[in-house]
Specification:
The protein has 135 residues and is of the alpha/beta class. The chain is built from 6 helices and 5 strands.
Length: 135
C-alpha cells in the first residue's frame, strides 16, 4: 500500500507541481490549501508525511495568504510524530525569522532536523528530503 503525503499549499499552480512530484516519488497525495483543511485531513486520514508551505490562509474564507500558518502544521506534525518538510519561498515573504522558530521546534521534536527548502519552491527536492525521513 502506498504511503500518503499531505501537501499544504494554497496556490493552484504550486499544488499541481507538488502533486506531480509526490506522485512521481511513488506516494499517494492529498492536498490542503488552508490550515483548517490540513487539520481536518491530519485528523481523519493516516498521513505518512507532510510537505508544507509556510504562508497560507487559515481557512478558505480567509484571503490573507501571508499568514505563517505552516508553523501550526509543523507543530501538529511534531506532536503526532509525522515527518515534515517545509517548502516555502521565504525571500518572497521576507520571513527568514521563521527559520529560528523552526530550529527551536526541531530541538524539542523527535526529528533531528526538519528539512527546509527556502529558495524557489522545489517540490522534487522536498519529496526527496521527505523520503529520507519516512521509514
Amino acid at each position: 500500500m502506498k504511503k500518503i503525503i499531505l501537501v499544504v499549499e494554497d496556490l493552484e499552480k504550486e499544488q499541481a507541481q507538488a502533486k506531480e512530484a509526490v506522485l512521481e516519488g511513488g506516494y499517494k497525495v492529498i492536498l490542503a490549501s488552508a490550515l483548517a483543511d490540513a487539520k481536518r485531513l491530519i485528523e481523519s486520514v493516516k498521513i505518512d508525511g507532510i510537505i508544507s508551505d509556510l504562508h497560507f490562509p487559515e481557512s478558505d474564507r480567509d484571503n490573507d495568504r501571508n499568514r505563517p500558518c505552516g508553523l501550526a502544521v509543523v507543530t501538529i506534525a511534531i506532536q503526532r510524530n509525522i515527518p515534515i518538510v517545509i517548502c516555502s519561498d521565504l525571500d518572497h515573504h521576507f520571513a527568514h525569522y521563521l527559520l529560528d522558530i523552526i530550529s527551536f521546534l526541531e530541538s524539542v521534536s523527535a526529528f533531528k532536523r526538519i528539512p527546509t527548502i527556502i529558495d524557489l519552491k522545489d517540490w522534487n527536492r522536498a519529496v526527496n528530503e521527505l523520503k529520507k525521513l519516512i521509514k
